[in-house]
UniProtKB/TrEMBL annotation:
Name the UniProt record assigns to this protein: MyTH4 domain-containing protein
Pfam families: MyTH4
Highest taxon above the source species: Eukaryota
InterPro entries the record matches: MyTH4_dom, MyTH4_dom_sf, Ubiquitin-like_domsf, Unconventional_Myosin_ATPase
Domain named MyTH4: residues: 1-134
Organism: Lates calcarifer
GO CC aspect terms: cytoskeleton
Length: 392
């Protein structure tokens, strides 16, 4: 009643305290809830009663009640006994012609369904999020960084999970098949890149953000490909740029080159120089690259295999061929040249990488061999050390 304005409040802070009590008691005191979540059911029933038989003279009373219901449905399940009645109440409120709170009733219904699907939010909202929800703002634009520093902003709602963000970013890259989307992940990055962890696809983005702010206010979210089995879409510029920027650092370090007995064949020299020319053209440059630029395009162990001027001569021949390409086409050709090696080199490395972080103190990753799905390696990481366990 105090939150809805029917009991004398003690300022804005008091409203925040009321919400925190409603959210935190149910989150942090499972022993008080019981087998059938009686405390949560009681909170729902009392709130619905105040909304249904609201006789308050204050116009904001009902509005505040719906906003509190919006918060509760994002955090707490009700019992299976109450569920059908609560859903029916919300559906009737959202579909009744001329109903005043149709929009927020529909949002509450969506929140509740997600809570049953993903478990509900587990981190109490900070004061900034609470103030926004009290003001009727239920979403924010969150920055996600692609490889190469490409920025994408995604509209994050109260109950948005990592899976939904991945789907939206994949749609933008022209990827619509579920098998393709499963090969991407969101990472939380803190402490200037020193700490990086993948998000479980069912984690709530705002839960992760709220927790990260306590550790590092300059946290960021990265979007990366982690499994390499599905074919690449070369016609989508964002998709090509994302993959090009992700593999380029490893290629320049020599991690994607296989040299039998440490020797470079004539065919490999030809391919390396063609890839160097494509990298140069991808920067939208048509002039011949300098020796310094070539030393960046070619991995150091390979660059030492012949005199620098010889590299310049060989790359110059290819530059005449790639001048007609635009930067997108150059990046696409680069990926096409390396794609067969990527499948052989990256698939065994990443394969199937799943995080069981929830907020458990350790994260576990299980790798499977492609096609056979045989478990071969388990890596468990926590804050202090890592344990590597092989399985026969």
């Amino acid at each position: 009643m105090r939150f809805m304005g029917d009991s004398p409040p003690r300022g804005l802070t008091d409203f925040l305290i009321c919400v925190c009590v409603c959210v935190c008691v149910c989150v942090s005191s499972p022993q008080l809830i019981g087998e059938f979540t009686l405390m949560r059911d009681e909170a729902y029933c009392q709130l619905l009663k105040q909304l249904t038989t609201n006789t308050s003279s204050k116009p904001e009373s009902c509005q505040r009640g719906w906003r509190l219901l919006y918060i509760l449905t994002a955090f707490h399940r009700c019992s299976e006994v109450l569920k059908p009645f609560l859903l029916k109440y919300l559906q009737q409120a959202s579909r009744s012609a001329g109903a005043q709170y149709q929009g927020i009733a529909k949002a509450c219904e969506q929140n509740l369904k997600k809570t049953f699907q993903y478990g509900g939010r587990i981190i109490p909202p900070n004061s900034m999020e609470l103030k926004a929800m009290m003001a009727g703002r239920s979403s924010k634009r969150q920055l996600f960084l692609f490889p190469g520093g490409i920025e994408r902003h995604v509209k994050i709602k109260t109950c948005s999970v990592a899976l939904e963000v991945i789907e939206e970013l994949c749609y933008e890259m022209g990827l619509h098949r579920l098998e393709a989307m499963e090969e991407y992940a969101i990472f939380l990055v803190t402490n200037r890149g020193q700490n990086v962890r993948p998000l479980n696809k069912h984690e709530y983005i705002l839960d992760v953000a709220t927790e990260a702010e306590l550790v590092d206010t300059n946290y960021s979210f990265w979007f990366r490909r982690v499994v390499w089995t599905q074919p690449l879409k070369f016609e989508n510029e964002l998709c090509v740029a994302m993959h090009y920027n992700q593999i380029l650092p490893d290629y320049r370090k020599g991690l994607l080159n296989v040299l039998p007995h440490g020797k470079v064949s004539d065919q490999q020299f030809h391919q390396i120089t063609k890839l160097a020319a494509l990298q140069h053209r991808a920067k939208d440059i048509i002039f011949i690259p300098s020796i310094h630029e070539l030393s960046e395009y070619i991995a150091a162990p390979l660059f030492k295999k012949q005199p620098p001027q010889q590299w310049v001569t060989m790359v110059t021949q290819h530059m005449q061929q790639v001048q007609t390409l635009n930067p997108h086409q150059a990046r696409a050709q680069f990926l096409g040249k390396k794609l067969h090696q990527l499948h052989h080199l990256l698939r065994p490395l990443y394969c199937c990488c799943q995080s069981t972080w929830s907020p458990l103190p350790a994260q576990k990753y299980t790798c499977k061999e492609p096609h056979t799905h045989t478990f071969t390696h388990t890596l468990t990481i926590n804050r202090h050390r890592y344990d590597s366990t092989h399985r026969d």
